[in-house]
Amino acid sequence: MAFELTYSLCFLLILLHLPLFTTSQPYQNISLGSSLVAQDDDSAWLSPSEEFAFGFQRIGNDGGFLLAIRFNKIQKNNVVWSAINGSLFQKGSTVEFTVDGFFIKDSETGNQQFISDQTAANGVAYAAMLDTGNFVLANKNSINLWESFHYPTNTILPTQTLSQGNVLYASYSETNYSKGRFQLNLQFDGNLVLYTTHFPLDTLNSGYWSTKTEGSGFQVVFNMSGYIFVTDKNGSVVYTVSDSDKMASVKDYYQRATLDSDGVFRHYVYHKSNGSFVETGTRAWSTFSFQPPNVCIAIEDRGPGPCGFNSICEHDDQGPTICRCPQGYTPIDVNDERKGCKQKFIPQSCDESSPESHGFVLAEMPYTDWPNGDYEHFQPVDEDWCKKSCLGDCFCAIAIYNSDQQDCYKKGIPLLNGRNDNSTPWKSLIKVGADNSTSKYGKKKEISALVLVGAALMLIISYLLIFIITYLFFSRLYSKQAKTSDLYPVVQGFNLKRFTYMELKEATEGFKEELGRGGFATVYKGVLASDNGKGVAVKRLDSMVRENDFEFKAEVSMIGGTSHKNLVKLLGFCNEGQHRILVYEFMTNGSLSSFLFGNSRPSWYQRREIALGTARGLRYLHEECSSQIIHCDIKPQNILLDDSFTARIADFGVAKLLKMDQTRTTTRFRGTKGYVAPEWFKSLPVTVKADVYSFGILLLEIICCRKHYEENMQDEEQMILADWAYGCYEQKKLHLLIKNDDDEAKEDIKNMELFLMIAFWCIQEDPSLRPTMSKVTPMLEGNLEVSVPPNPSSLYVLSK
Asked: Which positions carry the signal peptide feature in this UniProt record (predicted)?
């Protein structure tokens, strides 16, 4: 019998140690009045092929029973859906399909919990377990009135789809099916995002991976060919999450894609004959692909991360994330690694009369970091100074030291999102009780006379070699400095990759393909062979900047410390000899200038989204990042577009960084004429309102799809865009501004008028009249009322 599947999504949980159903009978139709009982001799409703089963199964030897859909011919890791948020039920509990609905009755309490309240009165005629893994309630015309695919837990199967607003929840652990700490969310804006949550609440904490399909994503599809992808409304693929090109024959495999308890979305395959994948221990499935590439590195925000507080996360391509405790720590619960680790020793006392620093040592762990959460930072200092500072500080649980930058960060308990990875440049110095230390770095109580004698002998030998060492050091010092990258103290705390000049010269084929040129630098296209051919934009600062490193320091420090989807991401830098080079992610769709003023006119929808994205990026710079930043050069050339045409603010080279207690600055002229605020020409203090003015001019250009000044206009009144646009607004002739636009803009004339009003407020001559970006953004979103703006004064004569 054929059943139409519309929107569907269903998730699988792993590590179940249960036998196959032996007393089950295949049902194609399950009639009203049917029921199943949770008992040791399992029974279930099977699909026609008997590949899927719906019924109770025991969780662990002493656990309860889970009502679930599972792969019936696989013994382990076979659950693809569970009822009532993974609740466990006592032996003797029943699931009943009656005229009153589809519900579970607990044998211990007698309570009923409805899986679906669809009843015979609603037209339900029968239930069925389908060969797709979907359990349905249908009417007599075989139309599904309820489907398990529409109420997913943590697994998606072939033929399932995930619609906007649908959410997958990771289970708490590999044996606990209740909601865990992670979600996969297809947002209403079309972006597929992995989030951490404020566990035990379901509320979202922060995203750590996404498809970046805002404005285009409509549905996630897992098709029969083994592809998982995001489509737009027309069915076109806009992002591929996983493909099946490496599978010899899709029909020979069972497949599932699961948001696992460690926050990784994995695509699994299992050979039906079990000839290619031999079941070993608890792992019979093979990991085919996964996102994100390394969850340990991806998650950096507040929360316990994949492994819990005070723990260390290590990535594993083929299986669950490896979690372990640092030296001197032990699991809080050996059966639940998500609870993290605790100290095995009595922490250092903060009693001034008894500092007890002599009772502690520092164990070293290379390539290890607990990002964020530091309460003190020192730079430049040597490693010994960092160690002594931590040992003498009762609040210090670990110190993080970077020898290249001579950075020392001190962190207290709890430690957040620990990870161990070869790409991490830090060394962790973990404070442990001296009696608990077993590291090669020694216990003070175990220092023997033999060790002291050995140290003395080594000292004598070193004196014999000191002349040679000194000579070699000073003779090679100059050449070494010329060859070694000298990192400035402007990238404190940021994990940016340091490139050599030769790496970047090779990546750009000798700085061959120029992408753009500015007043201080030239940007080239490059390809990183060390990063799977990833495209990058390589910004090479000119000789003037190499002599005065202002641009280099400003961009590395400011962009390295920012993180927002509407800002271009800085990947790394080169600071070698006279070479000052910055490496950014490559924006495939170029600048807004080319997009806006090219041959084809962008749609009104695209322009609206670009305006909103730019506003959100500026709001972040002005009010949400750790140090307030004035960009000072907002213009179409500095708004770049990624592969989904999301606006990304670029070029922080002339930005002005404000301290938290500052609201204004006085400085030399910055920015591009035509977009700069009047205060620049009046020697007045410059605030973030200068960026608001530039955004207003940019917004007018986005609305009207033309430059702010066009000298060759036949009608002189149209030369200055701000004057002409305000005249059209005042005279109720808005149609003149969009006469060459698409029907969408003409039909949305109200929103276009709203955007114009916001732009006019932004370009007021008096900075106090301009709104902040925290007000501009909700205005553009339609969440804040916009009053009638006064006529902005034309400053073209001054600012041209």
From this structure: 1-24
Helix 721-730 vs helix 689-704: crossing angle, to nearest 10: 70
Q: For residue 411, which phi and psi values (nearest 5 degrees)?
A: -130, 150
Using N-to-C axis directions, what is the helix angle for 749-762 and 689-704, rounded to 10°? 150
Residue 362: strand, helix, or coil: strand
Residue 204 pairs with which residues in a beta bridge? 197
pLDDT bracket for residue 632 (50, 70, 90): confident
Residue 353 binned pLDDT confidence (cut-offs 50, 70, 90): low
- Cα–Cα distance, 791 to 236 (Å, whole number): 45
Task: Pick the most confident of 472-481, 489-498, 788-797.
Answer: 788-797
CB 282 within 8 A of CB 76: yes
Q: How far apart are CA 306 and CA 298, in angstroms?
A: 10
Q: What is the pLDDT of residues 144-191, one digit of tens each?
A: 999 999 999 999 999 999 999 899 999 998 888 899 999 999 999 999
Q: What are phi and psi of 582, to 5 degrees?
A: -115, 140
- pTM of the prediction? 0.53
Q: How far apart are CA 301 and CA 205, in angstroms?
A: 8
669 and 680 Cβ atoms separated by less than 8 Å:
yes
Burial of 746 (0-12, 13-18, 19+ CB in 10 A): middle
Please pick, among 262, 407, 633, 651, the residue that the annotation labels catalytic. 633
Crossing angle for the helix pair 604-619 and 773-781, to the nearest 10 degrees? 150
Residue 678: φ, ψ to 5°: -55, -30
**HSE toward the beta carbon, residue 327, CA cutoff 13 A:** 24
pLDDT(282) > 80: no
- As a whole number of angstroms, the distance between CA 357 and CA 393 comes to 8
Q: Six-digit token pair at 663?
A: 């609201």
The values of phi and psi at residue 722, to 5°, are: -60, -45
Domain range summary for the chain, segments of one domain joined by +? 25-291, 497-585, 592-799
- Find the distance separating the first CA and the last CA of the chain, reported in whole Å: 73
The CA distance from 175 to 58, in Å, is 11
Contact criterion met (CB below 8 Å) for 331 and 309:
no
404 is catalytic: no
Q: Known binder of ligand: residue 539?
A: yes
Query: What is the homologous superfamily of the domain 497-585 according to CATH?
Result: Phosphorylase Kinase; domain 1 (3.30.200.20)
Cβ-based neighbours of 558, under 8 Å, separated by 6 or more? 627, 629, 652, 655, 657
Check whether domain 25-291 has CATH 2.90.10.10, yes or no: yes
Tokens at 32, concatenated: 């009203």
| Confidence (pLDDT) at 481 | 41
What is the tens place of the pLDDT at every residue in 410-468? Answer: 999 999 999 988 877 889 999 998 765 443 333 433 444 455 666 667 776 666 677 56
Beta bridge partners of 26: 46
Residue 266 CA to residue 320 CA, distance in Å, equals 10
- Placement of tokens 């990258």 in the chain: 485
